[in-house]
Each structure stands twice: as C-alpha cells, then as structure tokens.
Amino acid sequence: MSSAEDNAMTDQIAKTLTEATGLLHSPQRVVPLIQKLVSDKLRITFEQRHLYSYARTNRASEDTLNSLLHWILDAQRPDGGIAAYYSLLTGYSPSYPEVTGYIVPTLYDFARVSRDDGAIDAAERAIRWLLSLQMTTGGFPGGFHGGAVREALPSVFNTGQILQGLVRAQAETNRPEVQHAAVAAGDWLVKIQQANGSWSGAATYQNAAHTYYTMVAWALAELSERVADRRYALAAEKNLDWGLSHFKPSGWIDGINLRGHPNYLHFTAYVLQGVLECAILRRRDDAVEAVAKSAWVLLRKFETNKFLAGAYEPDFKNGQRFTCLTGNAQMSCVWFRLFEVTDDLRYLNAALKMNEMLKALIPVRGRRGISGGVSGSYPIWGCYQPLRYISWGNKFLADALLLEQRLTRSFVVNTFEALPCAS
Amino acid sequence: MRIVVLCSSVYSETACAMAVRMAELGHTPVGAVAISTLDRGTLLRKLGQRGARDVIRYARAKLIPHRGNGRVQVSNPYLQPLLKHGEGIFHSLREVAAFYGFPIAVCNDQNTPDSIAQLKEWTPDLIAFTGGSILRRKLLDVPRLGVLNVHLGLLPEVRGMSTPEWSLLKYVPVGVTIHYVDAGIDTGPILQRSEFPDTAQCESLSDLRNRLIAFGVEKAGEVVAGLDRGTISATPQSGKDEDHQFFVMHEWLQAQAASALPTAAGRRSRGQ
Known about the structure:
B: two-stranded antiparallel ribbon
C-alpha cells in the first residue's frame, strides 16, 4: 500500500471514529441506527436476487418523489444551504455548497410538475446563500460551509456543480446578480483549465485531474447556451475530448483517479452524465455513442444481476457486493436520457426497473432525516457513505423519477402493423 | 428420429403438447427430462416473473383442474386440440409418457452429470427444449443434430425475453423461430422463421402468447418432419452482437405493447 493510500485509510478511520462519538452526544439515535442495521441485515439475508425482476410497480413514483423532496426541504439549514447528509450517528451535516448548487435544478423541476411553491422558495434561499459564498476569483469554496481553512480553497468541481444551479436559477428568475455570479464562475473555470482540457492542481481534489469533472464541462456548456458565449462551449468541448480519451473499448472509463477509494459507481456515473449531457448540448454524436457503449455494459449487468455493484475494478470486473444507491439513480438518469436521444426502448425499460428497485429501498416511515432519505449504500454499512442518508442521492433519484414522469407521459404507441422484416 | 423433450416441469402444457405433436408425427419421444416441480430456484424465478398471485393461480389450476361446461380446461386453450385425449385431457407429461410409453427423468438442473448421463443413454438425434435451465455446452453436445428451441419472436431481430411484447413495440412482425440452441442467448442456427398471421385476432398479450406457443409447437412439428426428410437445414444467424437482445419488460411498457394490438382491447388501452 502506498503512503498516500495509507494516509487516506487513516483519515477514513479517524473520520469514522469521530462520527461514532456522535452517539455519545445524542443517544436517542441508537434506536433508529439499530432498526436500520437490523432491517438491512434481514433484507439481505432473506432477499433472493433472482426473486425480484423489478418489472412491477409496487409503489407509486409520485409518492416517492414527494417523500424525496420533503427530505431535501427538511435538510435545508437555516442559512439556506442544504446539508450533505443525515448521519445515523451524528445527525445532519452542515450546509454543503456543492450539493446545494446542483440540487437547485431539481427543486425547480419538482416545483414545475407539482406546483409546489415551497420548492421554489427553497431554491431561492439556496441561491442567496451560494451567492454569499462566491470568492472574488469567481470560484466557490470546497468542503463544508464553516469547515477547516484548508477546505476553504476554491474548488473546480464544486464551482462547476454550483454553476449548474446558478444557470438554472438565472433562467428561472432572470436576476442580473445570478447571471453575474454564473459568468464569474465560468470565467474562473475557463481561466484555470489546462491546455489539454482537464483541470488539475490546487483547486482539484487530491491535486489531480479527474474524468468525472466532465460534470463541470456540462455546466459550462449550459452556461454557454444561456449567455450565448462560445468561450464556455469551447472549454466544455475541450474537457469533453479529454474525457473521451479515457474511454476504453470495454466501456470502462479510466482517470476517475481517486487515491485511497475504490471506483465507486457514483463517479463512473458522473463521467457518463457529464459527457452525455455535454454531448447533447454540443450535438456531439461521437460522445453520445461512447456513453451508450459504457451504459450498455452496465445495463446488461443490471438486467442480469438485478443490481449494480457499488464499485468495480477496471473493465467493470469484480463488482463489490454492496450497492451505491446514488450511482444507481444516476444510471437511471443516463438510461432515460439515452432513450430520449436514441429511441432505444431498452434504456427506458432498464431505467423504469431501476426506479422500481430504488423506490423499494426508500424508508417511508421514521424520523426526520430518515423518512424519504436515500442511503449512501445498501446495505447501509456498505463502503460508500456508510450509515448516512445523502442529499445527492435524493437529488439524483428525484431527477430519475422526474424523467420517468416526463418520458412516460409523452410516450406514443402506434398500432401494430405487419411490417416486412429488416433482414 | 430419436427425440428427447426437456421441460421446466412435468406440468408444462407446452411440453405435453410438444411430446404429443412429435408422437403424432411418428417420432414418439424416447424420453423426457423435467425439472422437479418443487425446485426452489424455479419457484423463486416464477414468483419473480409472475408474482405470487399468478403462481398460486397456476398451481391451483394444475392441482385442481378447472371444469367449464363440465369439461376439464387447460391454461392455454390453443393447446387443447393437442392435449385432448379421448374424453379427457393430458394434465402432465407423466400422463403423456404413460400413454405413449416413454420414460421421464426428474432432476433439479438439466445440466447435472446425472441428467447428461441419462440423455446420453437415450442417444437422441434431437432434443426439443420447452423450458428449464440455461443449457451448458456438455448438454448441447449430446444430441446428434442439436437442441431445438421454439423462440417466440423472429430471429435475429428480437432475442431474449418478453419477445412478443418487444416485437409489438419495435414494429417487428410477430412470429416464431425454430432454431438450434448454442452457447449464446437465442443466437443458434435458424431452422425456420414464421410470421404469425393472427396478431389482429389477439385480445390481449397473454392471448397472443398462448396463440404463439401453439403456433410454435405446430411449426416445431414441421421442422422435425423436414429434418427427418432432409428438406430443412440450419442457417447461421447474422450479427450475433448484443444489438438485438431484449430483457424482461416492465409492466408499464407491457401496457404500451398491449395498446399496440390492433384489436378492441388495444383500442381500449389507447383510449379510442
């Protein structure tokens, strides 16, 4: 094990121990913790993977969507930011700028279909808080609000994710200060982009370039459309090309590059979402094809095994036994969008089944922070964000259910006609 | 022609009909291998595919045969002509086997060494697969000609699961393909492709499936007769890529497929 991996593991253990002390401060959390541990243990003990084909609807998507959004509204802190997670050990985390930013589009989408003004109010409070955090360079800080000084450096990834929220808020409200903030963030991202299209250095996680930063490229492509400035589109495509150079013939994507962590599905799905959305905006069929290839590998795994592993080794081998729920929800979004651009119904079918699986894993009862929450892992003690309900899990599952609503409502079937065979 | 029937259960109506059809053509099976009715894996798979209510209904229909108009009914009415036997109906492969005089071996997996040894003992020219395990290479190598499968879709366009439904949604003609099984999923050499002429008469997806199964048994008979006469040969499939593989269809899409039927039922689903 390298010293960097050693340090990462030590950090992880220290973090877990610190979290565990949370129970000493709030012993009332012991009961829900034990309940969740026992229920997941029972479920995985008696669950037969091949018993569930997830082809039937057991819970209405609208009900789950409402639960997910109420969880997010509950997680909004008094400052307007949204907590990163609710821990079964320590309760809500402080406000987290990155997540707060990219939850904003979800809040507006939800408000549109449900006519819920509460979601719009929440989005506007979130944006006000984010504007107060922007640095003079245009970037946004990494880490939690009020975190340690070393975390308060500008972060490329967080700025990109927040930019998504700013662009959407500008489209919804047309407020000049929001546009100004979005342009400043975009300018900073363009300024510090490397010649090869990646981002690396002090403003990146572990000072390294990561392919999942294609999510930043997506945000820049959106900004370009919104403010009609090609500079952002060029930067987005530069990063898109750099990202595409890491796609392997097996569908695997190199360059996620997180030292001390396995290749969580969440990050693979980030690359796919970033590349796909950027490709759609920039009309890049080559990039759509690359995403379709990787997404198809995962679709086959899901259809065959009835779940996607929480982490994979290169070439999608040796999947770990836990499931990363947010990664699953992201893949549902990717499949829905691929259906939209390719008309291939198998993507729609897989996404509908994935949503069924995920809906069944959302607690419908329990205290605030638990009911309607999406856990990091299933079972809850899996490697990815153990013992936590994470706000970005709620965001991505809500996005997947909103896509389901939109695409199933616009679906048109023509009557069968005896057409000649293609072959 | 020495034929062995493979089936998922001795209560499989399709297997019964297939055995009767072969016998009618003068090729009485030399044996059959059925998976145990109480096999845990099969039960769980059926529960997952059909849901508890349908499985209980199916089990009840098998154990307590329904009588309509004073006559015993079968689940798939389109197989009834083949299953009729004097005044009665064949309810299980055991009854068919007793009538035509061929043995049945029961196992938990058709690929086990015991099953394969039994199959080798029967020295089949052909194995007619009507359901059961995913067949492994060792079993596929047993028959002289191959393992025959009736696929409820036209190959190579629609491989995999829920194929009649996918055919409707993909605007591919509904039909059946008789093919040899190979190591892939529905990728083996094709013996006969037949478009189904009566889709317009189908009242529902289950009605379509039932009609297709009966149509497939009929076509399998034609293929066996053709193989016996040497007038049919297998053609390798083109494009064995994954582009044509389909998976179990979600119920929402199934409802859309039902609405694609050109019948009154389809019009109701489309709200016309």
